[in-house]
Amino acid sequence: MAIIKSGETPFQAYARLISVLGDQLISDKWVGVIELVKNSYDADAEKVIVRFLNFDNPSASAKPTIEIEDDGHGMNIDTILDVWMKPATPNKLNKKKAGDKRFTEKGRVMQGDKGVGRFAIYKLGDYVEVYSKTKSTGEVKLTLDFHDYADDEFKESEHQDKYLHEILNKWEVNDKPEKIINAKEQGTLIRISDIRSDWKFEDLIKLDKAFFRMKPPKLPGLSIPEDFQYEVIWDHRKPPKTYKRFDEISDLAPYYFEGMLDSHGNLDAIYTHNKSTVNIQFNLFEDELDIISSGIRSLKAYRDQFLKYDKKEIVEIRKPEIGGFMFFFYAYDLRDPALTKDEIEFLKETSVYLYRDNIRVYPYGEIGDDWLKLSKSRGELKAGDYFTYNDLLGFVFITQDENPKLRDAADREGLMNINGAKDDFIALVQTVLKVMKTKVDIDRKKEELKNQKAIKSLSKSYEESYNTLQKKLLEYDDAELIDRSKKFFNATNNLIQKVREDLKITQELAGTGMAVEKATHDTMSLLKRLKVNTEDFVNRFDKGKIQSKELRDFLVELQENLEFLYQELQVLQPLFRVARKVTKDVSVRNVTERVIKYFRKELEGKIKVNLDSNKDIVVKTNTGLILQVILNLMDNSIYWLEQLSDKDKQISIVFNEDDNTVIFADTGPGIPEDIEDLIFTEFYTKKSEGRGLGLYIVKELLDRIDAEISLITNPNLRILKGANFIIKFKKEEK
């Protein structure tokens, strides 16, 4: 095939490209105004005034107009023609590349770098007048009539489409300023008319709030220059400042977390609950015990973004593609009666805000913007692992210097995802929040435990008063009163006994459910494998390709698999309620051996189990109760041992016949000191898919037979380095 014609040609852009850029790059009218105000910030303005004129009583001679005026360094005619009038100019980007030139004269880091932010004016209106003046040059006036550029109405008109270079925009330089009249003798005024969007006075409240939040609030240890003021005016009226300041609400937070995460994953933070402060320092990728204790491996974003698994084993840890950041997080309980209605409403309107070089990245922090994917994760995963935006207020700070890949998206809707840097960043912020959430959950559970103790104390007080009243009534010589009282007492006792019996059944069912869940999973996996192997065997048999040795091997495998299924069901049988009614002498050792066999798939070749030889403890109860206790302890140990990369994984079970005790210990990460009081409470768990019932049910079951379980906290009494539990059974009288 021969080339019959060739050449070179440039793009020829139609003028309507400006309208396309304005509509596509600027998401809404709010962002349009904010972008122009950010340009004023880059121009070192100390004050910006945004005026909405003639909106209440518009007329042909007084059209609704938006004015944005600043006292920045302004532009001369060369800047207007060579920079401002050249879309996508690399002017700011080149300054950023040149090191210190990315800073303005006031030391501000320039926000824009794409050269398209000026098209925000098209989002606001079709007729634009730009007045600008530097301190040493005359005032420049530039007029833009976007009616000439495009007609995007879906109806016929006399508009003729032109190429961009065919439309000439008028400019002039005045020797005396017409509009830029201020003490600094410099600045820019943009007048926009033929307004494209509806504006109401109430809109200014939202706009005023957006400007207020454009700069970060006063935060502990953070110095922010107060050199940028703004003012919003509606026909000589100003919107009421009804909103609260951040510092008014931050002091009310019972939970506070501030710190830094560097580019290597080193977390250096302080967690405060009321007046109690804890320093937290560890590497999010290297310090395994802290990683497990903080629960961050249960976080899907952390696992998906940074970990590579082979089955359940971590085979690779990837470091993030971003630099460090600073954070301040405040967590609340909206049920707290101390919070007023206005304070609760304020919290519902706020969120987690992102600031780059002390200027906010929009729309992060706006109501409904789930930039951290907390709402999505709560809906799709385990809600309890994540804060809601309603009870969380936060500020995250990044810099262009440390995070050059975290740049504004072209449409001004958050960050670009350059080489996955945004995904890494969001995953790391979620991870930091998970560290905080783990601490908050512990403190909330401790407060709940205090309330439960108060309720138990109240229950005991009720029983004592109940018994006293019953005795007192018997002293009265009133047969009818005594008879009615007895009926009342009997009804009350029956109700209490029913509640206790219902609770007992629920606890038994919960334990049975855990065992059934595991057995079902293992059985289905085995049956699926058997089905595939059997189908393959039948096909080969039909084709006459089966040798006698293969037939024997298949039958042996089938026998082993059936034995496995039998053992699974053997473990389940004593857990059912009908079996629990049989009380007999139960060998704790025999039950333990049965549980070890039950978990053989998880244990063999992975975890060594040390079982005391020739020792045993016999307890008068039902087999299901002891089985449920050992099942829960074994399941816990296996779960936490699987979280460790350490190859030397052990479980030891020691029987002491003299003291009638059993020690159940492992080489896992152990129980952190701050949750030792919580591990036997219901619904508290640090497992990613846990329900928080295992150890609680173990304790309740043992209470029924006057046995007790506790955590060994004395290092001298532990037999392994991880979690060590001791069960003390009541000695039977001979």
TrEMBL record:
UniProtKB keywords: Kinase, Transferase
Molecular-function GO terms, alphabetical: protein histidine kinase activity
Record SMART domains: HATPase_c
InterPro entries on file: HATPase_C_sf (IPR036890), HATPase_dom (IPR003594), His_kinase_dom (IPR005467), Sig_transdc_His_kin-like_C (IPR004358)
Transferase listed as a keyword: yes
Superkingdom per UniProt: Bacteria
Reactions the enzyme catalyzes: ATP + protein L-histidine = ADP + protein N-phospho-L-histidine
Top-rank EC class of the record's enzyme: transferase
SUPFAM superfamilies from the UniProt entry: ATPase domain of HSP90 chaperone/DNA topoisomerase II/histidine kinase
Keyword Metal-binding included in the entry's annotation: no
One Pfam assignment: HATPase_c
Residue ranges annotated for the Histidine kinase domain, each copy included: 518-733
The EC number(s) this enzyme carries: 2.7.13.3
Protein's recorded name: histidine kinase
Species whose genome carries this gene: Cyclobacterium lianum
